[in-house]
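Collaborator request, handled under Task 6.
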Amino acid sequence: MDSTYRRQRHNSEEVCSVKWDFIKMSQQEEDLILRMYRLVGDRWEIIAGRVPGRKAVEIERYWIMRNSTHFLPPSSKF
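Structure tokens returned to the collaborator:
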């Protein structure tokens, strides 16, 4: 196994290992994440380096929640 595969596998396990709470981001953070995603794709470490105070796993979870129909913000749940 090469180190890239291990790193990606570790990140996926880390993302999936804990029950998720909805992650709130400011409008500025959302805009920055969207712009960075368009530039670099799903390279969460690079994006996290541009968003102060946020970790790569947190941004990845936010992205999945924001772009998935399975997650709704707490105020939208029935």
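The cover message to the collaborator said: "Residues 1-10 have pLDDT under 50 and may be disordered. The chain has four helices and no strands. Please let us know whether this matches your experimental observations."
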